[in-house]
Design brief:
609 residues, alpha/beta, 8-stranded mixed sheet, 10% strand, binds nicotinamide-adenine-dinucleotide
Length: 609
C-alpha cells in the first residue's frame, strides 16, 4: 500500500525542534554536568533521521514503523529535558515546550491519517523493529535493544512515572544530590526487579547517576507494560512484559545480564536472587559442576538448566567472564537475602552483597505498610470480593504477615494467623488475632493468604479440605508456598480461567476454589504492588547501596553487609517533610544524657523498632 506524501511538514517541524535542542544544550550547561547531554543529542538526531527514513520507504506500514521510532525518540527527548530541568531546578522553557507539543500533535495526526493501516501487534519475545539502514542506525540502537509488550503504551507509562516521582521524595532527592557527582559513571548495571512505575523511577535515578542500565522483571506477572515501554523509549534496555512464560522470563534475565560486547554487569540490583543464582550456577557449570545435566526437580528448574546448557554451547566461558567483572549485588527482599546468607555460609558467594531488605526503612515499611495497602488491593482488583465479615487465614506473622493481616482486618475480615515461631505467634495473639493451625481452619475460612517465604504452606491436601469457593493466594516471593503444581497436575481437577491471573478450580470432591496470580505474589500479579511512597524508602536504600558497593569495591569482601544505621535514619528523614512530620531535635544535654550524637544515629544495632 502506497502512503500519502504529507510528511515533509513534520520533518521540517522536527528540524525546528532539533535546532531548539541544540540551543538548549548550549544554554543548558547543566545537561552536560548531569551527563544527559549525549542522551539529549541522541534523541534529537534520531527524530528527523527516522522521519526522513520513513519518508523514503514505499509502504505506509514501514512509514508508520519509522514514525513510532521518531515518536519514541521524542518521548525520550522530552524525558531528558525534563530530568535536566529538574536536576538543575530550572524553570520550563515555554517556547520549547510548545514546539515539542506541536510535534507530538503532528506525529499523532500523521498516525491517525494512515487509516488503512492497523499497527502491527508487537510480538513478545522478539525484537520489534528491524531497522538496519545506515541513516537510522542510531535510532535502531535506541529502539531495538528491548523487549516489551507494546511500545505505544510509553506515553501512559511516562504519565504514571511522573505521578510516582511526586510520591518518591527520598529517591528524587538522592537523585538530585548525587547526579552531579556521577558516582556510577559508566558502570554496567543490571537489575532484576518488578518492572513497575516505582522501579522506573529507580532505573532513571541510576541512569542519572551515570550507570549503563539493563533491566528485567523478577516475576512473570509483575511488569506494568506501560512503564516498561516508557523506559524502553528512553533508550534504556528493558526486557519485561506482564505474562511472560518461564522460558521467556529466564531469557529476559539473560538479556538483562548481557551488556554490550558480551560483557556482564559490574553491579546488580536483585529481588529474590534470580540474577545472582543464574551467575552462580553458570560459573559452577563452567567449573565442571554437573547440576545442569541432571533432570530438573520442577519445570522452572529445568528451564534454568536448559538456558545454562544453551549458553554453554553458544557462549563458552561467558559466566566466568561475567563473574570476573562483577563487583557487587544489592538484594531487595527477605527470600533473596536468605539465599545470599546460605551462599555466604557455604563459602560460595562470588561478590560482596548488601542486604537492603534488613534496612529498617525497607522491611519495617515496605514489607509491613506496603502489604497493608497492596494485599487487599490485589484481592479486590482480581475478584471484587467483599472482605468484611469473611474469615481470612494469614499464614506467617512476620513483616509481610503483619501487613497482610492488618490489610484484611482493616476491611472487616475476621483474621486467623498460623505461625511456627512462638514469638511471632505471641505477637499475633497480643494484637488480638486468633492463632491456629491451618488444618484446624480449613473448612471455616473464606480467604487464605501465604506470607512465609517458606514452601508447602498450603498443600494440595489442604485445598481439598477447603469450603466451596474459598480464595487462595500468596504474597511471599515465590509460588512454592502453595502446591500449585500438584493442583494443576491432579487428574480429577478442572481448571478454568476467569480472567488472566484469576483461576477457578473444580476439585475432585465437587467443590471449587479460586487461585490468584497462579500462586505468585498477588499484590504485584493482580494489582500494582506497593504505593510509590513506601517504595521510595526501599529504593533510596537500593540506590545508596549501589553507590556504596561501587565506591568501596576494593575494600568490600565477599560477604553480606547491611547499610549503616546513619543511612537508614537519613532515608527516613528524607520522607518526613512530604507527610508533614515535624521532628524534635535533641538538646546537647539530652544527647549527652542518652549517650548519642545530636545528629544520630540514635539507636544501637540491637534495637528492634
Ligand atoms: N509481595 C511483596 O510485596 C513482598 C514484599 C516484601 C517481602 N516479600 C516476601 O514475603 C515473604 C515474607 O517476608 P517477611 O519479610 O515477612 O519474612 P519474615 O521472615 O519476617 O516472616 C515470615 C514468617 O513466616 C513464618 N513461617 C515460616 N514457616 C511457616 C509455616 N510453615 N507456617 C506458618 N508460618 C511460617 C516465620 O516464622 C516468619 O515469622 C518473603 O518471601 C519475602 O521475600 C513480599
Amino acid at each position: 500500500m502506497k502512503r500519502k506524501h504529507h510528511d515533509l511538514e513534520v520533518w521540517r517541524e522536527s528540524m525546528d525542534v532539533v535546532t531548539d535542542c541544540y540551543r538548549l544544550s548550549a544554554d543548558f550547561p547543566s545537561a552536560e554536568r548531569y551527563g544527559l547531554s549525549s542522551q539529549i543529542r541522541r534523541a534529537t538526531v534520531s527524530i528527523p533521521a527516522n522521519i526522513a527514513e520513513g519518508a523514503a520507504r514505499q509502504t505506509t506500514k514501514e512509514f508508520i514503523q519509522f514514525l513510532y521510532i521518531a515518536r519514541a525518540s521524542l518521548v525520550e527527548l522530552e524525558t531528558h529535558i525534563e530530568i535536566t530541568r529538574r536536576l538543575s531546578f530550572c524553570g520550563a522553557d515555554t517556547d520549547l515546550n510548545e514546539r515539542l507539543d506541536r510535534l507530538f500533535a503532528k506525529l499523532n495526526q500523521l498516525h491517525k491519517n494512515q487509516t488503512s493501516f492497523k499497527p502491527q501487534e508487537p510480538v513478545k519475545g522478539t525484537r520489534m523493529n528491524s531497522v538496519t539502514s545506515p541513516v537510522s542506525r542510531l535510532s535502531s540502537l535506541v529502539a531495538n535493544d528491548y523487549k516489551v509488550r507494546d511500545i505505544k503504551l510509553a506515553d501512559l507509562g511516562r504519565q504514571r512515572i511522573r505521578m510516582a516521582e511526586e510520591e518518591m521524595p527520598g529517591l528524587m532527592s538522592i537523585r538530585a544530590q548525587y547526579a552531579p557527582q556521577q558516582p556510577l559513571k559508566g558502570v554496567r548495571l543490571s537489575g532484576s526487579l518488578h518492572m513497575t512505575k516505582e522501579t522506573a523511577v529507580l532505573i532513571e535515578t541510576l541512569v542519572a547517576l551515570g550507570a549503563n542500565v539493563r533491566w528485567a522483571s523478577c516475576n512473570i506477572f509483575s511488569t506494568q507494560d506501560d512503564c516498561a515501554s516508557a523506559i524502553a523509549v528512553t533508550g534504556i534496555p528493558v526486557f519485561a512484559w506482564k505474562g511472560e512464560s518461564l522460558e521467556e522470563y529466564w531469557d529476559c534475565t539473560l538479556e538483562m545480564l548481557t551488556h554490550e560486547g558480551m560483557k556482564g554487569p559490574e553491579l546488580i540490583v536483585d529481588d529474590g536472587g534470580d540474577a545472582t543464582l543464574l551467575i552462580h550456577k553458570g560459573v559452577d557449570m563452567e567449573n565442571g559442576d554437573k547440576w545442569v545435566d541432571a533432570p530438573g526437580a520442577n519445570h522452572e528448574e529445568q528451564v534454568i538448566k536448559d538456558l545454562l546448557k544453551r549458553t554453554r554451547s553458544e557462549r563458552p566461558g561467558f559466566w566466568k567472564t561475567v563473574a570476573k567483572d562483577w563487583r557487587g549485588v544489592s538484594e531487595e527482599t527477605t527470600t533473596g537475602v536468605h539465599r545470599l546468607y546460605q551462599m555466604m555460609e557455604a563459602g560460595k558467594l562470588l561478590v560482596p552483597a548488601i542486604n537492603v531488605n534488613d534496612s529498617v526503612t525497607k522491611s519495617k515499611f515496605d514489607n509491613l505498610y506496603g502489604c497493608r495497602e497492596s494485599l487487599a488491593d490485589g484481592i479486590k482488583r482480581a475478584t471484587d470480593l467483599m472482605i468484611a465479615g469473611k474469615v481470612a487465614v494469614v499464614c506467617g506473622y512476620g513483616d509481610v504477615g503483619k501487613g497482610s493481616s492488618h490489610s484484611l482486618r482493616g476491611f472487616g475480615a475476621r483474621v486467623i494467623i498460623t505461625e511456627i515461631d512462638p514469638i511471632n505467634a505471641l505477637q499475633a495473639a497480643m494484637e488480638g488475632f486468633e492463632v491456629k493451625t491451618i488444618e484446624e481452619v480449613l473448612g471455616e475460612a473464606d480467604i487464605f493468604v501465604t506470607t512465609t517465604g517458606n514452601k508447602d504452606i498450603i498443600t494440595y491436601e489442604h485445598m481439598q479440605g477447603m469450603k466451596n469457593n474459598a480464595l487462595v493466594c500468596n504474597i511471599g516471593h515465590f509460588d512454592n508456598e502453595i502446591q500449585i503444581d500438584q493442583l494443576n497436575e491432579a487428574e480429577d481437577v478442572v481448571k478454568e480461567e476467569v480472567k488472566p491471573q484469576v483461576h477457578r478450580y473444580k476439585l475432585g470432591n465437587g467443590r471449587h476454589i479460586y487461585v490468584l496470580a497462579e500462586g505468585r505474589l498477588v499484590n504485584l500479579g493482580c494489582a500494582h504492588g506497593h504505593p510509590a511512597f513506601v517504595m521510595s524508602n526501599s529504593f533510596s536504600n537500593q540506590t545508596l547501596a549501589q553507590i556504596d558497593l561501587w565506591k568501596n569495591k576494593d575494600t568490600y569482601e565477599k560477604t553480606v553487609y547491611r547499610l549503616p544505621k546513619k543511612l537508614d535514619e537519613e532515608v527516613a528523614r528524607l520522607h518526613l517533610a512530604q507527610i508533614g512530620v515535624k521532628l524534635t531535635t535533641l538538646t546537647q544535654a539530652q544527647a549527652d544524657y542518652l549517650g548519642v550524637p545530636v545528629e544520630g544515629p540514635y539507636k544501637p544495632e540491637h534495637y528492634r523498632y
